[in-house]
Amino acid sequence: MTPYEQAAQRELALWAEQMRKKPSLMNRMAKSVQVGMNRIIPKKVHAVITAAIKHMTRAVLVGSEYTAPKPVVESPLPEREERVRGRILWYKRVGAAEGGLTGAAGFLVGLSDFPLLLSLKMKLLYDIAALYGYDVADYRERLYVLYIFQLAFSSQSRRQEIFAQMEHWDEHAKTLPEDINQFDWLTFQQEYRDYIDLAKMLQLVPGIGAVVGVWANWRLLDELGRVAVMAYRMRIL
Asked: What is the pLDDT of residues 28-56, one digit of tens each?
């Protein structure tokens, strides 16, 4: 292995340890708080989030709304990851600008941020997959993208389950159903909604919505990019 690959391997090993950790007391408390928050958030807001996630999930699985970029072949890892970092930064800037604009525009416009941000996240993952040499025109590669998404935006207990499956992806992929309707999108959307609710609800508050929108979208896209890098390193290395 090259020195770059050795350093990447060490970073991957540390990250993998974090993914395997059992939920801490703080994790469990945060989950309890989130359950309580869900009870006081208006049903209309929940409905918008749920519908957006459901629509996005189905679109990804059938590939009807996203143009699959061509995979990059025969490129060394440092070159691939330099381009990946550039794409992540670009999406973070776009997402932060979008979050600031919708956050400043008030409650109704602020609701539109949810589907817009979801689209940005999925397009980022498609671009990263292609830069690592994977063809998302393949149904199972699109499923891998959804697994990355879950790994980034789920509770620690759910992350443990997802990571265990991704560690042995080649074997796990053989067990995946051919029927896309069998994908567990309900758990997927519930975990994602619970993960982002608090930050995104604050974005709808008049006066602070723009600042929160910039910060939240930047942070969420940054986390997604970081997890995607590690997920593809796990397959390459």
From this structure: 566 666 666 666 767 777 677 677 777 76
Backbone angles phi, psi at 215, to 5 degrees: -65, -45
**Domain residue limits at 224:** 3-236
Tell me the two tokens of residue 195: 């993960």
Report the number of distinct structural domains present in the chain.
1
Global model pTM greater than 0.70: yes
What's the pLDDT tens digit per position in 145-180? Answer: 989 988 998 888 889 999 999 999 999 888 887 766
Burial label, 174 (beta-carbon count in 10 A; 0-12, 13-18, 19+): exposed
Q: How many whole angstroms separate alpha carbon 23 and alpha carbon 71?
A: 36
Residue 164 burial (CB count, 10 A): 12
CB 155 within 8 A of CB 195: yes
Distance CA 185, CA 145 (A): 13
The CA-based angle 57-169-161, given to 5 degrees, is 70
- Amino acid found at 100: G
